[in-house]
């Protein structure tokens, strides 16, 4: 009985409060308008048929009374390339939305652009209109659209050439079949969707030039994504791929730049790479296992693991390269050095119930006239199995090394090493060129320089007026 009385009393109080609540008072003055957090919603250049990221803005009621929005209308209607969501509801036309005094409401905007059948970047415009108290206000919508060659699960089964007429977009994968070839011409742009990858079973030739490099990057073109790693997968070289060439390329924002896993079976190296930048990889710049690589004038920047990881077996030569790993700790805590070399791979042993090394032979791992530096105390680590060969040489090198990790002073394979001298890059995380005060200037060996007489920018390393070649991929040129 008491419980029923309590319920009746509580209900009576609620009803009395409801009936005593004052009616909402709306501002109806024609001078009373809305305010917006921005006047134009911009989308950076986006690829046609691929949706954009979501943008948003807020509608404010700056008044002391409620305001009624009679109508919100996407001007392009159902035919618009833009899509809007008002306060959680999608559509193109909305009526009777109210905003409390000094409160606000969100509007979300996305776009999917239709092919424009043009190599040019075209501007697409629309607007959202707001009808309030007889006034018409609007927020503009603006996007730039670019047509692409779209590749989805495609296999290249004949010799193919890609040109720079318009970008290429790899949605999931692209496979170069056995004994087939893909040549990518100077100035071409390759965009990789999330987790997309190249698989090279045949041969790829990336042939950029100094003024028009080939660029391989993610497909998010907004400024926010310009330096974000892990946006796509990797470029994978698989048996029997050989005689691959990469010259004047920029490979950025992926997971592994180059994963080379095709064994040596001819005189030509599996991969020749030159005048190329690999940067902002969430794992390795180059991961090589049981293969052969020749590289010069190659720059590998920030990586979540190593710039270069050489494991199990193979033959590798790096001349006039710059490996500069200043991976940002707010992504993850990098625990590996810029260069890691091991003549084994770990395999699971069921008897020991754990991983044991499977050894093999690294016949050569040579680094000459190069820079290996970064944010860790030790940026080179050599790990040798009890069995197998591991031949390595570091000659004329500027490196960050920790003797407590590895006693390189007693290792005859370390020659002419400039230890823990900051190379003083002029443009960290941009190009890693040398500052005028860099100790890497004139510190190289002229014999190694004759193998790469021009630097990544095309400047001579063998100038008669110069005291010697510089370490790394760039030659410092005074004004």
Search tags:
2 domains, 23-stranded parallel sheet, 479 residues, 2 helices, elongated, 5-stranded antiparallel sheet, Immunoglobulin-like, mainly beta
Low-confidence stretches: 4-10, 13-22
Secondary-structure content class:
mainly beta
Please tell me what the overall shape is.
elongated
Tally the structural domains.
Answer: 2
Instruction: Give the total of beta strands.
Output: 35
Query: What's the pLDDT, averaged over the residues?
Result: 91
| Percent helix | under 10%
Q: Which band does the percent of strand residues land in?
A: over 45%
**Main beta sheet strand tally, sense and closure:** 23 strands, parallel
Give me the Rg, rounded: 30 Å
Terminal Cα separation, in Å? 97 Å
Number of helices: 2
Describe it for me?
With 479 residues, the protein is mostly beta strands. It has two domains: 35-145, Immunoglobulins (Immunoglobulin-like, Sandwich), CATH 2.60.40; 149-449. It is built from two helices and 35 strands. It has a 23-stranded parallel β-sheet that branches. A five-stranded antiparallel β-sheet has the order 1-3-8-5-6, with no helix packed on it. A five-stranded mixed β-sheet has the order 2-10-9-4-7, with no helix packed on it.
